[in-house]
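Sequence in, structure out. Go.
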Amino acid sequence: MKNIHFLILFLFSISTSLHYIVATSLHVKYLPGFEGPLPFALETGYLSVGESGDVELFYYFVKSERNPEKDPLMIWLTGGPGCSSICGLFFANGPLAFKGDVYNGTLPPLELTSFSWTKVANILYLESPAGSGYSYAKTPRALESSDAKQIHQIDQFLRRWFVEHPEYTSNPFYVGGDSYSGHIVPGVVQQISLGNEKGLTPFISLQGYVLGNPVTDIKISNHKVSFAHRMGLISDELFESFENSCGGTHMNVDPSNAKCLKDLQAYDNCISEIYAEQILLPNCPVDYRLPVIPQTLPNIKIGGRRELVEISGNDTSSLPPPSCFTYRYFLSAIWANDENVRRALGVKMDLGRWNRCNIQNIPYTFDNDNAIPYHVNNSRKGFRSLIYSGDHDMMVPFTSTEEWIKGLNYSIVDDWRPWMMSSYEVAGYTRTYANKMTFATIKGGGHTAEYKPDPCSLAFKRWIDGKPL
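Output:
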């Protein structure tokens, strides 16, 4: 019996080495900026992926505060592409957040949140692709990424993570993300499902997926003008003229169509000082520039002003005022570039400067114009899905999300109705379809869950427990 056991271990060690599995993990008890020991279980680490193990993906794993042995496990993917999963962990749905205090030159302090999704689920926050957050590539070629490559590497990461954490293989598994992850999450779901069908191990107990304000296809910009009109940002006359001159679309604009180009320029003049991620908020500086996604729109911007601001742990000259919603983004750069923080997290110390969103520095190919076929395939296989959308987001208007969901042509089983935070507060509106897809708006919400974290948290908690919103 001992010989058989030894043989199994020997064969497993060969198989893992042949697949370049290199894992390092750390159980984090204390974090700089937070007083006392962490009241939740946090693990960080690296896993090697890629054909030759030349990509090191960094992750944060937070155990559920309810029942980690039985509760669902979800991997959370931040958008960008190229934004750090700190966006999820510290802003959208994790157990910690930066205090909004005026920066005093010390390490920005952290506090516990009341809205963490980890109260009911285990969450694995992944930095993907290489170049995001603390993830890195060992060669310039390995740094090159794309939608398809991300999907493949995330599936690869998960299979290897479960090898290192076999105690979670029986937990219900979900894939989640927001913004540009709308191009990645449904593809990862399909990839995992196909792998399970082919007998890949470990088997992943995939149940469904969660998406917030997801980018789904490049035609999304067509809805920005109609959204601006519905929100009173452009006049009736301009909207009607745009509909007539441009045919109601930003796409395939004829450069010789002077009237259409004039209307688009007038539209851009009206919204140029609007903070597109939440139109009610001041248009404060942000710490990234929008990615250059292929467009057919000639020389016309399709969103509010964006600035690329370089800030290191020692440079505070570019800090916006604390009244700005984006203030915490700059605090995150100070925190994440601190050597003591990196040491506590087990980060490779020679990675260079951390950026919350490293969009411009990753060679990225946008090779998936339309994620809808993934949703079609995932629906056919019976996976549950929750799609939520902040109704004041102009980057990915809720109307564009409604359109592609309706385009799936599934019948409605629970028609449009308000869903409630309490007996006297409407949290948003929801509709459920026959393909087990629930769509929900977040009243007053923006581009990500952080703009209205409490209703987003409540929607997730009810949905993950199989309850109606």
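Check: The two ends are 53 Å apart (CA to CA). Residues 153 and 237 are 48 Å apart (CA to CA).
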